[in-house]
Amino acid sequence: MDYIKVGRLNDFENKDIISYSIMGRFIAVVRQKGEELFAIEAGCKHQRADLTKGKIDGLIVTCPRHHWQYDLATGKCLNHESVDLRRYDLKIENGDIYVSLHPVD
Ligand code: FES
After folding, report:
1. Distances (CA, A) of 78 to 33, 48, 55, 58
2. How confident is the model at residue 102, as a pLDDT?
3. What is the CATH number of the domain that holds 45?
4. What's the predicted TM-score (pTM) here?
5. Can you tell me which atom of ligand 1 is nearest the CA of 68?
6. Cα 51 to middle of ligand 1, angstroms
7. Which of 30, 36, 45, 79: CA 20 to 30 A from 55?
8. How far apart are CA 10 and CA 100, in angstroms?
9. Into how many domains does the chain fold?
């Protein structure tokens, strides 16, 4: 599986979510309090708004445009069926964050 370096662990000292543009895809890296990082699609399934600019309450994000909500841990859309966000594999090596563009099932 190919991984692309997107940032560093230090980027998360004062942030819990950052979006990265990787080969035309917006991917959010999320730090769950006290736990590992994970990567998830950052473009809203409605009209592609950047979900990292939305309201985040725990692991629930509300899209800044029309307020669709997603569970960032699972990618599930909470108010529309069959439009879940893709999750991506992530690894950390020597403080660098790498994301695979192959979605996790
Ligand atoms: S663009 Fe996200 S709800 Fe419309």
Report:
1. 21, 16, 14, 14
2. 82
3. 2.102.10.10
4. 0.84
5. 3
6. 9
7. 36
8. 20
9. 1
Average of per-residue pLDDT across 82-97: 92
The burial class, CB within 10 Å (0-12 / 13-18 / 19+), for 34 is exposed
Helix residue ranges per DSSP H, the chain: none
7-50 pLDDT per residue, tens? 999 998 888 889 998 888 889 998 877 678 889 999 999 999 99
- Residue 63 beta carbon below 6 angstroms from any ligand 1 atom: yes
User: Which protein residue's CA is at the shortest distance from atom 1 of ligand 1?
Assistant: 47
**Residue 9 near residue 97, CB atoms below 8 Å:** yes
Nearest to residue 58, comparing CAs of 32, 85, 27, 89? 32
- Residue 96 predicted with pLDDT over 70: yes
* Cα–ligand 1 centroid distance for 43 (angstroms): 9
Q: Are strands 55-57 and 96-104 parallel, antiparallel or unpaired?
A: unpaired
Q: Residue 58 sits in which domain range? A: 3-104
Residues 74-95: what's their mean pLDDT? 91
Is residue 44 within 6 Å of ligand 1 at its C-beta? yes
